[in-house]
Amino acid sequence: MTSDSSLKMGEMSTRTSSNVGKFRVTAARAESGKVSLGFRAPQFELTEPPSGKSWKLEDFEGYPALLVMFICNHCPFVKHLKKDIVKLTNFYMKKGLAVVAISSNSISTHPQDGPDFMAQEAKAFNYPFPYLYDEVHLVGNGNAFPV
Predict the structure, then answer these.
(1) CA 111 to CA 95: how far, in whole Å?
(2) Over the stretch 88-129, which tens digit does the pLDDT of each residue have?
């Protein structure tokens, strides 16, 4: 991936190794005015498939910061960035950052985002962070974490 000063926020430019072609991906741009840096995450208790382990906000209290990612298996942007998400989180987790990913999608509308598929995805990509399922949509979709 290379830097391209002509790109707008939310766009990436990738060039082939021979620089013959150019590939541009335009990502969705969503800004949040509801929370600011340092926002205190709300209390939650969610399960990590398939272990069934329950995670709470308190499990991350000993860290200087917590990155909460709302991701899902079917999202084209997440699919495109999975390997980079793993690299980025591995790098910053070694520096002390706590990371958690949450899927809040309904399995009735997105069965590929269900717990069994989440567990397969986390294993296949070696997610170094807990990938939690919000079955009742308490945390995601703007309920507890307004986006």
Answers:
(1) 35
(2) 999 999 999 999 999 998 899 999 999 999 999 999 999 999
